[in-house]
Structures are given as C-alpha cells and as structure tokens.
Amino acid sequence: MKYITTILDKTYTVDINRESEVVLNGTPRPIDMRAINNDRNSDATANDGMYSILIDNKSYEVLVQEVDGEYRVLIDGVLYPTKVMDERAKRLAEAAGAFAAGSGDTNIKSPMPGLIVAVPVAVGDEVKKGQVVIVLESMKMENEIKSPREGKVTAIKVNPRQTVEQGQLMIVIS
Questions:
Q1: Angle at 43 between CA 42 and CA 45, to 5 degrees
Q2: DSSP secondary structure string for all residues of 110-145
Q3: Sequence-ordered alpha helix ranges (H) in the chain
Q4: Whole-prediction pTM value?
Q5: CATH number of 2-96
Q6: Contacts of 18 (CB under 8 A, 6+ apart)
Q7: Which pairing describes strands 10-18 and 21-24: parallel, antiparallel, or unpaired?
Q8: Domain 106-173 maps to which CATH number in 3.40.50.970, 3.40.50.360, 2.60.40.1760, 2.40.50.100?
Q9: What are the extents of the domains in the chain?
Q10: Per residue in 1-42, pLDDT tens?
Q11: Nearest to 8 by CA among 80, 103, 110, 74
C-alpha cells in the first residue's frame, strides 16, 4: 500500500509491498523492523510503540506514537513530527483544502512522559521552524523538542525539573 508521508515539510511516497522491503520515492530499500516488548509480564504483542529497525546495515531504536492524528517518531534523541496519509485520503483532503498548511495556534505536547530539562525560549520570543523549544529527558535520553513552524511563543505551560505526562501541553506557538 502507498502512503504519502510528510516529515519536516518534505514529502515522501512510501510503498509497503513486502515484509522485508519498503519502496521510498521509487527506490526499493531492504528493511527489517521488529516490535520491542518492554514489559515482560504483558501481552507479547504490546510494545508501547518501540521498534528495532535495521536499514542499510544500521540499527535504530525508534519510538513511534500517534498524537492527535499525527505521528511522533523519536530516533537517536531527535523528534520528527510526521503526517501519514494513504493516497486516497490525501486526494480527499486536497479536494477539501485540508492538506494546506494551517494557521493559528500550534500546541506542542509532550510525545512521552519525562522530565523537563530546559526551556530555552520565553513567552514573546519569535521562533523559527526547527528551533529547539524544550529539552525533555525520557528513557535516560535528552530529546530536543523543536518548533514545527515559525511563530511567536504565546504560552509556556512547563518549567525545568517538572515531570510531564504523554500528551501534556508544554508550549503554544502562534
């Protein structure tokens, strides 16, 4: 099945047609992806969104979580907000005008439970797309949470050394 995937304003066509291969923008790529079960006492199929992925002989541990219809993909401590649509859904969205970039407030929520290490911005600051707005420690790793767009910080709902839950509102950018 073909999917249209947008990561940081770059769009990719991903065709998943075999278990051990992904076709990325027309180029076949061998891939091995396995769910990681973090809780030995739970159902063997429960993995809390953790995967081990082998691509081009490189191993990656990846956390994938769906939040408000978008996916958050954490690889090597870097968070990638990702939109995924199948071809039919993309055509319907384009016809309805829903695929265009939105305006208004952008709520940045915690992709996972953790501890706020730093908030390098303040209310009123102008931020650029990709600028670090929160440093979140989770699973013994520091993760830079970056602004998905340009704008002005209108609210900060967390402080350093504060613990947050997955999905908790941290910053609002207008």
A1: 130
A2: -SSSEEEEE----TT-EE-TT-EEEEEEETTEEEEE
A3: 87-96
A4: 0.50
A5: 3.30.700.30
A6: none
A7: antiparallel
A8: 2.40.50.100
A9: 2-96, 106-173
A10: 788 888 877 888 888 877 788 888 888 888 888 888 765 544
A11: 80
